[in-house]
Amino acid sequence: MSDIIGKALLDFQNGNYSEDIITYSSLGEEDMITVPYLFRAYNDMPKIEQRALGLCYGKILDVGCGAGSHSVYLQEKGFDVTALDSSKGAIRVCELRALQNTICTNIQDFYGTKFDTLLLLMNGIGIVGNLNRLGNFLNHFKSLLRPRGQILLDSSNIIYMFEQDDDGGYWIPDTIDYYGEVEFQMSYKGLKGKPFHWLYIDFENLKKYAQNHRFACELVSEGKHYDYLAKLTLRP
């Protein structure tokens, strides 16, 4: 599988930035990921991300770290943070940015170490892919948390992207199990990656799944465009 994200991040880190990542989705929209944005400093981060970083404590695992911008900030603040990503290119960039602790693997394959904070930003919970897999991921996250641990994640309710009926309801195709399940494909400098599934979950569904798996779920803050920050904590 082509490491599209990793190639783009390495190009930018090595001074070879010339174009951005193009994304295609099952929603029928073509969009772009601006590579320099993935290297943003704290002051350029959305308020939700800044709030999440301010809530971090203890030993931290940055899941789906990408270029490592959140980990860099936390390490500079003196935290014991580990940056994890399945992209070899992303992890190499994190190493070049002087992050001390990095792991290249899928989160589902990572075991053994426990943390106080699991951080999943930039819709990091999207790695779940499909709603029916969320329970398994929550159980795995539970195995990585210390007794008073927390999960900080942001996501978006993308119901606004569907047509609204006259009675206020939304028209969702019968072929979709849950409207927040989106298939993406990325291309960069003529290379095209394999399609992958990505999950956007509304807060009420997140809360329901969290409670069913013995997590307390708190809505910490909401953004300007249907996005939100949630905190999940282990119940006794």
Structural class: alpha/beta
Instruction: Look at the structure and give the CATH class.
Output: Alpha Beta
> How would you describe the shape?
globular
**CATH superfamily, please?**
Vaccinia Virus protein VP39
Query: Any idea what the radius of gyration is?
Result: 18 Å
Number of helices: 6
Helix coverage percent: 10-25%
Element pattern in H and E = HEEHEHEHEEHEEEEHEE
Q: Summarize the main sheet.
A: 7 strands, mixed
Mean pLDDT: 94
CATH topology, which one? Rossmann fold
Please give the CATH architecture.
Answer: 3-Layer(aba) Sandwich
Strand order of the largest sheet: 5-4-3-6-7-12-11
Strand content: 25-35%
Oligomer: single chain
| Spans where pLDDT lies below 50 across 5 or more residues | none
DSSP E strands, number:
12
The end-to-end distance, rounded to whole angstroms, is 41 Å
Would you mind describing this structure in some detail?
- By secondary structure, the protein is α/β, with parallel strands linked by helices.
- The chain has one domain: Vaccinia Virus protein VP39 (Rossmann fold), CATH 3.40.50.
- Helix content is 24%, strand content 30%.
- The protein is built from six helices and twelve strands.
- The strands form two sheets. The chain has a seven-stranded mixed β-sheet with strand order 5-4-3-6-7-12-11, sandwiched between helices. Strands 1, 2, 8, 9 and 10 form a five-stranded antiparallel β-sheet that branches.
- GO terms for molecular function: methyltransferase activity.
- Pfam families: Methyltransf_25.
- Its EC number is 2.1.1.-.
- This is Class I SAM-dependent methyltransferase.
- InterPro entries: Methyltransf_25, SAM-dependent_MTases_sf.
